[in-house]
Amino acid sequence: VESLNNVRRSYDASKLDLQFNFLLSRRSANIEAVDEVKRFAERYDASIHVDVVHYSLPYFQEGPERELQFRPEDSDNVRRTIDYLLEIKAKQPHLLTESAVALASFEDWALKQEQMRVPCDARKLLWVGADGSVMLCYVTFMLGNLHEKRLRDMLYSPAHHKAARDAFQLNCPNCHCEAASRVEKHGPSLRKYTAMANDRAG
Known about the structure:
Layout: H1 2-10, E1 19-24, H2 31-43, E2 47-52, H3 75-91, H4 100-112, E3 127-128, E4 133-135, E5 142-145, H5 151-154, H6 158-168, H7 179-185, H8 187-200
Parallel strand pairs: 1-2
Antiparallel strand pairs: 3-4, 4-5
Helix pairs in contact: 3-4, 4-7, 4-8, 7-8
């Protein structure tokens, strides 16, 4: 907080953008938690990016007994929280970085988890690990290691093209990275969640 105060004294929002990432999980799927981060963001003239808790990323700590992961009995809390986020988006569109369409989809991303089948555009990604490993994305599709092969020899190779096709077809753990852009690029999802966002906005 002291650092944020110092930053804002030196640079206002016209000179420096601030963004706080809010993790939507079993612990935070409630209006009180959203209000808390909303007040904090408003205090520093910042925006809020909403992430849905992951279930398949290897570097994500799920907590004892998967306490952060959503369960079927959380559906009412998730729906109320998403409705509230949509209400905020309608009143303060620049406060939340996601579109209303993306926010409306987060209920399904949270509750359906690996059953949420939206094509992945990981073909545009490349992940390089500290050990030199190169993968198409954060989760899978190993392409090689920089200690053994030049990057130029991995890119656009048959293995790279196959990984991109497999990612699109969800032949993978099916995480929800890039969830917002995926639903906005996928025609059936875009139509579904656009209608849902409009309906829930009243």
